[in-house]
Amino acid sequence: MADEKKILVTGATGLSGKHVLRQLLAKGHQVRALAHKEDDRSKELQKLGAEVVYGDLLNLNDARAAVKGARSAYFVYPLQPTIVGASVSLTQAAKEEGLELIVNMSQLPARPDAESPASLNHFLGEQALNWSGVPTTHLRATFFIEWLLWIAPIIRQGKMIMPWGADSRYTPVTTEDLARAIVSILEVPKAHAGKTYYLVGPEQLSYNEVAEVLGKVLDKAIPYLQMEAGAFADMLGMGGYTYFKDHCKSVTKELANGVFEVQNRLIEEITGSPPMTVEAFVTKYRSQFAG
Predict the structure, then answer these.
(1) What pLDDT does 4 receive?
(2) Within 10 Å of residue 56's Cβ, how many Cβ atoms?
(3) Rounded-to-integer distance, Cα 37 and Cα 43, Å
(4) Torsion-angle region of residue 178: left (phi > 0), alpha (psi -120 to 50) or beta?
(5) According to the model, what pLDDT value does residue 93 have?
(6) Predicted confidence band of residue 36 (pLDDT cuts 50, 70, 90)
(7) C-alpha distances in angstroms, 240 versus 92, 103, 209, 244, 288?
(8) If pLDDT is split at 50, 70 and 90, which confidence band does 39 have?
(9) Nearest of 57, 51, 62 to residue 29 by alpha carbon
(10) Closest by alpha carbon to 182, among 62, 6, 13, 22?
(11) Strand 101-105, strand 169-170: pairing
(12) What fold, for 6-141+174-198+265-271?
């Protein structure tokens, strides 16, 4: 039987958050979602059976209200420079409440000498959580396969455009599979507290090879084209977001230097089943990629 205390999910309207919330509810857990405002997305969470509270993690009292009566939390934060402040605020509230575990979504290149401001801030956020003494599991996840959905309109035009080098290799993972690991960790907090997991997909591919997979599933040639990071941000409508641009530029170098060439079977070991391949993902969402 699921614990009567709630599990807090921040970022519950985002990619990994919504999967975590749905999977927790499906397993009978009581779930509280933290949202910034009431809108169609937050109303949908209520329809699913989650308690929804509204607030900003940069406000300590909002963070306290979010964790009140919770036993654990999944903490995921958007790509914003305020992540360190949000981490400190949530951690203070969690410490006061005595949470059993915080599962913290970080990113694979998070480290003290990271060139990307975003990666460095994720590292600093990790340290704030560690210093608090609140049991924490850090997830250093690789690129989400869902990036392909963000450029689906371009793929439908018969090409794949990203700012990363064509021969750069990585092990893409779906947020659905990440969520399976997160839920498994939340269900057995003592087994995972204090651990840092590098979570990746089942296969290492270059961006050229990902384009080849797209072409195979869609039954047409999909060439891969590299675009300068700033121009790529402009294409996505994020041209005014310097933080995102700087992160993309830095990650381009990280990929070229092999930082993302991490391979393991942690998701399968934690959950009991392997994560989805790129081919399986593209096949599942074929209608969104087909012209």
Answers:
(1) 67
(2) 16
(3) 10
(4) alpha
(5) 97
(6) confident
(7) 33, 31, 31, 9, 27
(8) confident
(9) 51
(10) 22
(11) unpaired
(12) Rossmann fold (3.40.50)
Q: Using CA atoms, how far apart are residues 255 and 261, in angstroms rounded to an integer?
A: 8
Domain residue limits, the chain: 6-141+174-198+265-271
* 79-119 pLDDT tens trace: 999 999 999 999 999 999 999 999 999 999 999 999 999 99
- pLDDT grade, residue 2 (50/70/90)? very low
Q: Read off the pLDDT of residues 204-260 as tens digits, 9 standing for 90 and up.
A: 999 999 999 999 999 999 999 999 998 998 888 887 789 999 999 999 999 999 999
Residue 130 reports pLDDT greater than 60 = yes
